[in-house]
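Take a specimen:
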Amino acid sequence: MKHLFLLFFILTVLSTTTTHAQSNSSWRIGFGIDAGVSTADAFKYALGGDIRVQKDFNQRWSGTFTTGFSHFFEKDHFAGYSQYGSPYNVIPVKLGLKYFVVDNLYLGGEAGAGFAFEQWGTSFVYSPAVGLAFKNGIDLSLKYEDYTKDKATKNIALRLAYGFGARKLSSHKTKHESNDLELGVSINPGVNIESSDDHILGGDVTLYKPLSSNVEATFSVGYAHMFKSYYFDYGLPDASGHVYYNTNYTVQNVVPVKVGLRLYLADIFYLGGEAGVALATKRNSSFVYTPSLGFKLKNGLDIGAKYDNYGHRLIQDALSLKLGYHFKLK
C-alpha cells in the first residue's frame, strides 16, 4: 500500500508542468486497468478493468458513468473465513463527478451498485478518488472502493486509463497506418486466477501485420511456467454411468501458439484477442484463448494486461501483465 501512495506522489510532483486539456468534444470515453490491495484479511489483491463515459460540463466539472469487472484474489484459501468460500467477482455500475482543482489535478467520487457472482449478491458501492489527467489522454488516479455489503470487499487501487474524445473513435483518426511488419517481444508476470499466491512467469514473441488504419493481425509463440503444481481430482463417466476418478498433477510448463487481432480504439489504446493451442507434455495440450487490453506507446513500449484461458482442466488459467517492446521489420 505504501508503494501505491509513493508512486502516486511522485507522479503528482512530475505533473506540475503538465496541463489538463479537456478535448474539444464534451463527451469522452476512457478504458482503464485497476490494480489494488484489499484492506481486509480474506482477500489479498484486486485487479480489474473498466470503461468510463465522461461528460464535461465546463473546465472544472465533469460527470462520469463507469462499468467494468473486478476480481478479488483470495488469501490462503479463506483460512479462518469459512463464511466466504469463493473469490469475489463483481461488475460495478457507477455514476460520479470529477472536480478539477487545478489544470490537471482532480478530485472524484462515484457511487452505484456492484453485481457480484455466486453467493455474494448485489451491493452498494462508493469510490472516492484523486487523480491526474494528462494532455496526451493518460488518466492516473488513486481510489478507495468499498462494496458495503461485506466488510471484506474493500480495496485501495491505482487506475491507469486512456481517454479520448468521442469523435476519435473514427478509424481515420488513428495513426497506425504503416504497412510494415513489427516484431514484439514481451515478458508476462502473472498469477493463477484461482489464487494470487501461485505465481506464473511467461514471455512471447509476436508478429504484427497491419490490416487497416486501426486493426492488426497477430501471430505469437510463447512460454509460460507455473511455479506450483497441484493434485487435481476429476471424475470420468463410462457408458454405463459409472464414474472413475482420476488424480493428476496440474501442468507447470506450456508453449502457447496463437493467432489473433488487435483493434486500436484510439492512438495508443487497444483491445486484443488471440486463440490457438497450448502445447504441453503427457498429452495435456489444450485450446487457449486470450483477451487483452493495453497501451502501445509511440516509442515502441507495449504495456497491458491479458487473461489466458485454457481448455484443459490440468492447466491453470492465468491473469498477467504484458511488458513488451516492438521493433519494425523492413
Summary: The longest strand covers residues 195-210.
